[in-house]
Amino acid sequence: MVNLNVMRQLRTRTGIAILMVLAACAPSAGPAGAPGVEGVRGHLLIVGGGGQPPELVARFVELAGGEGKARIAVLPMASAEPEASGTEQAEELRGLGADAFVLHLTREQAMTDSAARLLDGATGIWFTGGDQSRVTPVLRGSPVLDAIRARWREGAVVGGTSAGAAVMPDSMLTGNQFRAGEDTAGYYGDDFPEVARRTIQVAPGLGFLPGTLIDQHFIRRERHNRLLAVVLERPALIGVGIDESTAIEVGPDGHWTVRGSSAVFIYDARRARITSTAAPVLGTSGVRMHLLPSGAVFDPRTGEARLP
Length: 308
Description:
single chain, 4-stranded mixed beta sheet, 9 helices, Rossmann fold
C-alpha cells in the first residue's frame, strides 16, 4: 500500500524542484519599464535633425521595400511651410525610386476614415521637421494615426527627423520650459542653465517608441541638461539624445542600431537612486550613460549596449 502522506510530500518537493529549474532557465529580468511594442513587424528610423546623409534616406527607402516597391506618405504638419517641406521630401524619395506622396492634414481631415484609407498600401510613413507640437493635436486619437500604427504593425517603416523624431515616443519634449516667475511654459531657445525639477515641459507623443524620451540635435545644440533633468523626473523612461545627421533604427526585435555620421547619447535612470521629490536639490547616483557611435546596438530591455 502506498503511503498517502509520502506521496503528498513527493508531489510538493517535485513541484518546488520544477519551479526552481524553471526559474534558473528563465531569462533575467530587464530594468523596470523596458520599452517595446509586441506584434510589430515594421521598423522605425528616427533621425536627430540637421542634414540627412544620403545613406539614411536610402535606408528608409530600403526598409519601405526598395526602389520600385516603396510607397511612402510624407506628413509635413510640423513644418511652418508644410507644402514646400512635404514636396521637397517627397521629391527626394522619388529620386531613390519610391512612390512618394504628401499627406498634409488638418485635425478635421485626420478624423475621417477617408483620410485613413489614403494610407492603404503605404510601406513607409515619414514625418518632417518643424515644431512637434503642431503634429500631435492633429493626429492623436485619430483614424489616421490608427492607420499608421496598423501599417507599422504589418511591416511598414515609420520615421521622421527633428520634430518628426520628438513625436515618436509616448512622452514628448515640446521644446518649452518653465522659468522662475512665469506661470506657463515658454520657448527660450537652447539655453538650459540648470538640471532641476519642473523646468521642462513634456506632453503626450504618438506612442511608437514607448518607455522613452527623445531629444534631437542633441550634441550639436548641447541639450544634455534638458534631457537629464526630464529623465531624472521620470526615471522609468530612457532618455535618447540623437545628434544631427544621425538616427536610431528600431527593428521588430526591439534593438536600436545607430546609423549616420555622429552619435547617440542614452541616459538610463531605471536603476538609479534619485533625491526625494521633497528635496530642494535634484540629485542622483547610478545613472547609466552610453555614447553610441554609428554601428552600435542598444537593447532597451536589458540596458546593455554593444559598440562597433
